[in-house]
Structures are given as structure tokens and as C-alpha cells.
Amino acid sequence: MATGLLALLDDVAALVKVSAASLDDVPTQVAKTTGKVSGIVIDDTAVTPKYVVGLDPKRELSIILQIAKKSLINKAIFLGPAALLLGYFAPVIIPYLLMVGGAFLCFEGYEKVHSMFSKSAHEPTDEPTEEMKVITPQELEKERVGSAVRTDFILSAEIMAIAYATVAESPLVTQIVVLLTVAVFITIAVYGFVGLIVKADDIGLHMAQDKFHPTTQKIGRGIVKSMPKFLVILGYVGTAAMLWVGAEIIAHGLPFLHHPLENLEHALSDVPVLAWLAKVVILALGGVLLGAVIAKLVTLVRSLFKGSPKKVAH
Fold first, then answer.
1. What is the rounded CA–CA span in Å between residue 15 and residue 21?
2. CA–CA separation, 308 vs 145, rounded Å?
3. How far apart are CA 155 and CA 162, in angstroms?
């Protein structure tokens, strides 16, 4: 009996040692995953502030908190476990799901680029194309939160899938801890920074008050003046990030695209910054091209399934 108990304790101790050793690797895996999803994180950060534009400034942080809570629930409760289940029962599907998500990012990025350069997108029409619907501020807030959560869900799915792919060969304990840590860390980082961006004007106005030192006032006024330009730049960076991350996800799943990119990096390895920049530019351009093709296909499919035009009574 004593021998059996000692053997059981030895097994438990061995299991604890293995678990501890695998957990020691968690910070490294989290850092590696965060680096891989940086483009998606930048895009998420750049996109979210637009959902609080035009709403009551007093409600801005509350709205961001609502989106952050739902984002964390999606990552930790739904997307993380889904990645684990797919990884266990159907791991072959994950690369293809990642590539579908990458294609979607390219499509979204192309749509943003197209809207930037399309003159018609900025030309006001003389008459409204449809009847305007009047809604209450509460309904508008609910609609904005829902739209933000839907966009975040897609980006979060990409984040959790990439996170799982990073730790797919690790022990189950490491996989669970890394996925949960990534979910919490990225959610706090993204929406904490979004909250800071949204309230930067208020912070700047507060600092610009006469009761503060002239230097503080000057910094405050600088913050207020620079925020519109900063948001524009952040939008451009977010769009570029969508394109290069989407294209990189697809290229990673296709060896005939992945190997040339690796060769390019090796050829420019003496100048790491140039190697990174060349890769990003190529991927971003490839993302635009792929997004344009997808946009054409979407337009074609819509035209095929669009019903015959309705007759208008005169």
C-alpha cells in the first residue's frame, strides 16, 4: 500500500514538473504570438475609435468597455476553445481557415484603399437614396456596439487561430494558458489604448487650462491639435496592416509564395530593416491585388443573385 502511494506521489510530482516546465515557456510563446498578430492588433486599434464618433462623450469609455468585455468573452469562451477543439479533431482545417480570414482582411483592406482614392465615394448626392430612419441615442449606441463587436469577432478569430498555430506542438496546459493569456493581454492592450485615444482630446483640454504651467498648457494644446492627424495616420497604418497581415497569412499557407519571401529575407539579412520593409511592401501590394480580385468576384456574385429591377409606378 505504501509503495503504491509513493509511486502515485512520484507520478504527481513528475506531472507537476512537466507542467511547470511547459509553463516556463508561456511568456516566450505569448511574446511570439503577440509579434505575429501585431498587424491585426494595430488594425483593431485603428478601427475601433470610429464607433464612438458622434456619440455622447460621457458614454465613450462605457461603450469601449462594453466592446472590450464582449471581445474578451469571444476570445476566452468561444474562439479559444474552438481553436483547441479544431486543433485536436481537425487540425488540417486550421491553415485553410486562417487563409480565408487572411483573404477577408485583404478584401477589407482593399475596400478601405478604394474608398480613399475613389472620388465618387466622397461626392455628396443631391437626394437621399433611401428613407432616413430616426433612432434614439440608446439605439444608436446599441447599433454601434453590435457593429464593433462583429468586426472585432473576425479579427479576434484571426488572433486566436494564429495564437493556437504558434503553440500547436506544445503540451495542452501550455496551449490553454497561452491562449487565455493572449486573449486577456491583447484585449486590455487594444481597448486600453483605444480609450486613451478617444479621451486624448479631453486630456489635452484639461492640460491646456490656465491653472497649469505654461509648458503643460503647450503640451495640452499640442495634443488637441495633433489628434485629428494622428487618427488619420492610424487609419492608414491600420489599413496597411490589414493588407500585409492578410497576405502574409495566405503566403504562409502556400509554399510557392512563402519560399520566395524567405529567400528575399535571407538575401537582405545584412540589413534587417530593409528586409522587413521590402517584405511588408510586397505583401501589402499583393494584399491590394488579391483584395481587388475578391471585390470583383463579390460584385459579380451580387449581380448574378440580384433580382430583376422593380417597376416604378408613374
1. 10
2. 35
3. 11
What one-character DSSP code corresponds to residue 211? T
Which pTM was predicted?
A: 0.74
**DSSP assignment letter at 269:** T
Residue with cell 497569412: 249
- Answer yes or no: are the C-beta atoms of 41 and 238 closer than 8 Å: no
Give the DSSP H or E segment for 100: helix 93-117
Centre a 10 Å sphere on the Cβ of residue 140 and count the other Cβ atoms it contains: 13
Place of cell 476553445: 81
Identity of the residue numbered 50 = K
The CA distances from residue 42 to 49, 152, 274, in Å, are 12, 12, 21
Q: Which of 155, 187, 195, 152 is nearest to 49 (CA)?
A: 195
For the ranges 6-10, 67-71, 283-287, 293-297, which has the lowest average pLDDT?
Answer: 6-10
Expressed in angstroms, the distance from the first to the final Cα of the chain is 96
d(CA 203, CA 221): 10
pLDDT tier, 314 (very low <50, low <70, confident <90, very high otherwise): very low
DSSP 65-89: HHHHHHHHHIIIIIIHHHHHHHHHH
The domain segmentation of the chain, as residue ranges, is 20-121+137-303
Residue 215's alpha-carbon distances to 146, 226, 306, in angstroms, are: 41, 16, 61
d(CA 162, CA 109): 19
Q: Are the beta carbons of 190 and 41 closer than 8 angstroms?
A: yes
Instruction: Please give the single-letter amino acid code of residue 106.
Output: C
Helices and strands: H and E segment counts in the chain: 12, 0
